[in-house]
Amino acid sequence: MFKKILIANRGEIACRVIKTAKKMGIATVAVYSDADRNALHVKMADEAVHIGPSPANQSYIVIDKILDAVRQTGAEAVHPGYGFLSENRAFAAALEAEGVVFIGPPSSAIEQMGDKITSKKIAQEAGVSTVPGYMGLIDTPDQAAEIAAQIGYPVMIKASAGGGGKGMRIAWDDAEAREGFDSSRNEAKASFGDDRIFIEKFVTQPRHIEIQVLADKHGSTLYLNERECSIQRRNQKVIEEAPSPFLDAATRKAMGEQACALAKAVGYTSAGTVEFIVDGNRNFYFLEMNTRLQVEHPVTELITGIDLVEQMIRVAYGEPLAFTQQDVKIHGWAMESRLYAEDPYRKFLPSIGRLTRYRPPVEGPTETGIIRNDTGVTEGGEISMFYDPMIAKLCTWGPTRAAAIEEMRLALDTFEVEGIGHNLPFVAAVMDHPRFTSGNITTAFIAEEYPDGFKGATLDPDTLRRVAAAAAAMNRVAEIRRTRISGTMDNHRRRVGDAWVVDIQGETIPLTIKADPNGSTVTFDDGTHLRVTSDWNPGETLARLHVGAAPLVMKVGKIPMGFRLRLRGADLKVLVRSPRAADLARHMLEKAPPDTSKYLLCPMPGLLVKLAVEEGEEVEEGQTLATVEAMKMENILKATRAGVVKRIKHQPGASLKVDDIIIEFA
């Protein structure tokens, strides 16, 4: 077996590979840019080599710098992770020329399958059904619009070397085709160093289901069942699960066999993924093959018990697979929620900054399932604008789909992240969405269910009562602590009242609370009551309670006369007041927010790369005004109403913060 491997990547996937390598007794080498000098993967590895400035195109995707690190450390093999150089044929070939093993497929397979245009042609020749499209290269926006119109709208504009949602746009008309072509090409060049673009028909209402394949160098090619990846935003996967709630055994077998046939056709070895779109009648169409490890591989590992990184290393070393297709089973159900550094309340715009608090749930077996968290950050770490916004993958396993979802709900409520905007509230809300829990999902789920963006979840009446009861019990504990500290009385029990009014989610809930040595009983106006038990103390940011017949976990922040409570995707300002204080509060006026309608504000930290207007110019609603690049994604800012540009505050090349004024209107 290899004695030392280098991981040509960063973040959570670098940490993931290091964990398996350590388990196998293999020494590891990390590489890092300026921005990652203190990163977790650097600390976890046995050695680390600095490879350059923060931008990926000056460090992580510079082949010569990775090769230099290999030479310096004497690494025998390189694991590329995903993204960066993982599907770069030239990189794999360069390692082969150096006599260093690439922990992945042969460079010839990367060349054929890593290129989406070539891969579709090969898939057609191998008898795999494919989506209609134009497989030639496209050079101009006008050509893109012409081809798109011939295929028929809507179309998907895709980077040939793309992945991870980068360089992808859906176009519904000629204008969007031209604009999408430019943005896709720019993103592709920045992310992959390859700006080739192709166009294919966008199948409406599809499911995105992929097959994990595993092949050795001795002729064995297996499929490890499927993953459902339909919960996507801007073609970026957000929630994945295995198996799919939609496939039947016959379709699973047919897709698996086609995926294996395609892998064999190009001499593929290692752990790769063949992606399909599947319509409502379970007809499936080939999309692409990712020759590298997928982000969502943990859910396959959880239902099969197979460590895919270990298998990649063993295959690269030349070992045959130690199991057959008949040995691959489906055990239980697994869910994965991707934690992104993006603000769901601001249309999921990227967020950067310091993680002032980062406390994932404890990994390992629970009473009813398993929790796993693949991460590449630690508390106090910096989330940079230079890389992909994903910072962790929270995974849960349960014996059934419903059990895996419930494990995920509690795990998400337990996950504490502060200092940056993040999407935990959104994925928590999805876990409670009736359409998701029923399994009735497509890639249009987010667009259809959240057409105006995410505004926070609304708790159902039963959950709201449970939270109100919990807040009342917590308030009682806080009031006892306050009176003890104040020293204004000898017997605090006489001063902490029984009657309270809880204002929550627009509702006013009067209640009384009676405490005993084992907990509290909360009684509502209609005579119903809930039993609350907890060991929560004031100042703790996480409250684990038992309310009624079920556990309740909430993130807690103190505010005047109450709490900020977060759970199940809801962010609640909960006020707990005496009846007299509640009555007086109804007469207080609320402060109006400032008027920002005369400004174009930067919605996220990023780089202003383009201005599309000039001072004095009249603009119409929907007109493109500027482009801001953040975390390798281009964000086009458009006018929300007609107006005249009075003053331009920043020019292209400027680094902007959230809410920096870009343009002022007359």
Describe the structure.
- The structure is a single chain.
- The chain is α+β, with helices and mostly antiparallel strands and 666 residues long.
- The protein has six domains: 4-103, Rossmann fold; 106-131 and 209-224 and 242-330, ATP-grasp fold, B domain (D-amino Acid Aminotransferase, Chain A, domain 1), CATH 3.30.470; 132-201, ATP-grasp fold, A domain (Dna Ligase, domain 1, 2-Layer Sandwich); 332-457, ATP-grasp fold, B domain (D-amino Acid Aminotransferase, Chain A, domain 1), CATH 3.30.470; 461-585, Glycoprotein, Type 4 Pilin (2-Layer Sandwich), CATH 3.30.700.30; 599-665, RNA polymerase II/Efflux pump adaptor protein, barrel-sandwich hybrid domain (OB fold (Dihydrolipoamide Acetyltransferase, E2P), Beta Barrel).
- Helices cover 28% and strands 33% of the residues.
- The protein is built from 17 helices and 40 strands.
- The strands form nine sheets. Strands 14-13-10-11-12-15-23-21-20 form a nine-stranded antiparallel beta sheet.
- 48% of the residues are buried.
**Strand line-up across the major sheet:** 14-13-10-11-12-15-23-21-20
Question: Cα-atom Rg, whole angstroms?
Answer: 27 Å
Shape: globular
- What count of structural domains? 6
Tell me the helix content: 25-40%
- Identify the CATH homologous superfamily of the largest domain: ATP-grasp fold, B domain
Extract low-pLDDT stretches. 489-493
Q: Please provide the count of β strands.
A: 40
CATH architecture group name of the largest domain? 2-Layer Sandwich
Strand content: 25-35%
Q: Helical element count?
A: 17
Biggest β-sheet description:
9 strands, antiparallel
Report how far apart the termini are. 69 Å
> What is the SS-derived class?
alpha+beta
* CATH class placement of the largest domain: Alpha Beta
Average pLDDT works out at 93
Question: CATH topology of the largest domain, what is it called?
Answer: D-amino Acid Aminotransferase, Chain A, domain 1
